[in-house]
Write a structure and sequence with these properties.
Number of domains: 1
Number of helices: 10
Order of helices and strands: HHEHHHEHHEHEHEHE
Distance between the termini: 49 Å
Strand content: 5-15%
Largest sheet: 4 strands, parallel
Bound molecules: zinc ion
CATH class: Alpha Beta
Oligomer: single chain
Strand order of the largest sheet: 1-6-5-2
Radius of gyration: 19 Å
CATH topology: Rossmann fold
């Protein structure tokens, strides 16, 4: 193996010394041994969805409610989301919301790692990990992906697929420019995303007869997730589970 040139050793060392890393949420300088993107005390602030949640839409429920399958957040969607169930790491509020925003708009790609780790844990805890056969990220419209430089759903889906030891297939694409969902009502949101997705040419064999885990960063009404799930099933997928980092209430800016 070729030895590294001395100048490379020197510059690597200098970089470590002169560029202290900071917590992507609080901005606190990270010290030796703090290897993640976020300071440990910030991660501890996030209340992850515990035992009480809605298995239909993933919304965390108040303590003592138990596992339900029809919560206030998903009652507008009587026909369901086109999914067998949704897991969400937590509510889209407080520190978890800051993490999602920093990942989506702040260029903090490393934040996908803890989100993926939480989702993997939930997928194992709730028996979803054993059922699904592949992982699919929610696609961004190409122009939005270009301007952002990355797809945050894909950043979460990659380490999640790795943790679940399942293949990651980027099989979906957006076919038309949809209006930003955050500006619309629940009914408008659903109409806005009907027909918004298609399976990429030549990729249906990747999903035919398979159970898919569809990954997104934030779920609000579930209209986008539902439209993508129905597209996968129409193309032959046996069924779809959703995994979202955070479950937002309608009206939240996502
Ligand atoms: Zn629900």
């Amino acid at each position: 193996m070729k030895a590294l040139a001395p100048i490379q050793f020197i510059s690597n060392g200098l970089l470590d010394l002169t560029l202290p890393r900071h917590c992507a949420v609080s901005g606190r300088p990270l010290i030796a041994g703090e290897d993640g993107a976020v300071a440990p005390e910030v991660l501890r602030e996030i209340e992850l969805a515990g035992g009480d949640y809605c298995s239909r839409c993933g919304a965390p429920q108040g303590r003592g409610v138990g596992v339900i399958r029809d919560c206030l957040s998903c009652r507008d969607y009587r026909e369901g989301f086109g999914t067998r169930g949704v897991i969400a790491a937590g509510r889209y509020e407080g520190t978890l919301k800051e993490v999602c925003l920093a990942l989506k708009f702040g260029g903090e790609r490393r934040l996908a790692e803890p989100l993926a780790a939480w989702l993997a844990q939930l997928a194992f805890d709730r028996g979803v990990a054993d059922k699904i056969e592949l992982v699919v990220p929610m696609p961004l419209h190409p122009y939005r992906r270009l301007s952002r430089g990355y797809n945050q759903a894909e950043l979460i889906a990659k380490p999640l697929a790795q943790a679940l030891a399942k293949p990651l297939f980027d099989v979906l694409r957006r076919v038309e420019k949809t209006q930003r969902q955050a500006t619309l009502s629940a009914a408008q949101r659903k109409g806005n995303v009907d027909g918004a997705f298609e399976v990429r040419a030549g990729r249906t064999s990747d999903i035919e007869g398979k159970l898919v885990l569809l990954v997104d960063d934030v779920m609000t009404t579930g209209a986008t997730l539902g439209a993508a799930a129905r597209t996968l099933k129409k193309a032959g997928a046996k069924g779809v589970y959703g995994a979202v980092a955070a479950r937002a209430a309608l009206g939240a800016d996502s």
